[in-house]
């Protein structure tokens, strides 16, 4: 199982950690929300928790819990600017559909999470 970052995403993670003044990684997860079902969660991580997987890409570290990794496996993460909005953008092979606003998504049956 793996996840990768673009240069832009890695640079944004490093900038946020530097701005915060502490931390080792970006923690990415999923939660049930929205009109389609799932959404990404983000927080800066000070440690790798038991059961988490870590991925180093372009000098930035990402950590993901095992249940979220089932849904996020194979994702490539970019950091994009669209108008005035900046955000991480996922190219996730497990996504089946997204809501119109792009905030939530649904996954193929084989990648269904057990996390609530």
Offer a few descriptive terms:
116 residues, alpha/beta, Hypothetical Protein Aq_1857, Chain: A, 4-stranded mixed β-sheet, 3-stranded mixed β-sheet, 2 helices, 9 strands, globular
Structural account:
With 116 residues, the chain is α/β, with parallel strands linked by helices. The protein has a single domain, classed as Sandwich (Hypothetical Protein Aq_1857, Chain: A). It has two helices and nine strands, in the order βαββββαββββ. The strands form three sheets. It has a four-stranded mixed β-sheet. A three-stranded mixed β-sheet has the order 1-6-7. It has a two-stranded antiparallel sheet with strand order 8-9. Strand 8 and strand 9 (105-107) form a beta hairpin. The longest helix is centred in the N-terminal third of the chain and has 14 residues, at 7-20. The chain is globular, with a radius of gyration of 14 Å. The model has no long low-confidence stretch (mean pLDDT 88). InterPro entries: ATAP, ATAP_core_dom, Fe-S_cluster_asmbl/transfer, FeS_cluster_insertion_CS, HesB-like_dom_sf. Residues 1-103 form the Core domain. One of its GO terms (molecular function) is 2 iron, 2 sulfur cluster binding. This is Iron-sulfur cluster assembly protein. Belongs to the HesB/IscA family.
What portion of residues belong to β-strands?
over 45%
CATH homology superfamily name: HesB-like domain
Strands side by side in the biggest sheet:
3-2-5-4
Helical coverage, percent range:
10-25%
Whole-angstrom Rg = 14 Å
State the helix count.
Answer: 2
User: What is the number of independent domains?
Assistant: 1
**Largest sheet, strands/sense/barrel:** 4 strands, mixed
Number of strands: 9
> Any low-confidence stretches, pLDDT <50, length ≥5?
none
CATH topology: Hypothetical Protein Aq_1857, Chain: A
| The CATH architecture | Sandwich
Shape: globular
Class based on secondary structure composition and strand pairing: alpha/beta
How far from one another are the termini?
21 Å
**Topology as a string of helices (H) and strands (E):** EHEEEEHEEEE
Q: At the first level of CATH, what is the class?
A: Mainly Beta
Mean pLDDT: 88
């Amino acid at each position: 199982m793996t996840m990768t970052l673009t240069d832009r995403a890695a640079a944004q993670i490093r900038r946020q950690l530097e701005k915060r003044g502490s931390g080792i990684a970006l923690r990415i997860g999923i939660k049930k929300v929205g009109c389609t079902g799932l959404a990404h969660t983000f927080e800066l991580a000070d440690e790798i928790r038991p059961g988490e997987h870590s991925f180093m890409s372009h000098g930035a570290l990402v950590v993901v819990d095992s249940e979220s990794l089932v849904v996020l496996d194979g994702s490539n993460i970019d950091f994009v600017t669209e108008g005035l909005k900046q955000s991480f953008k996922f190219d996730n092979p497990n996504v089946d559909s997204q809501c119109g606003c792009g905030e939530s998504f649904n996954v193929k049956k084989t990648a269904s999470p057990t996390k609530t």
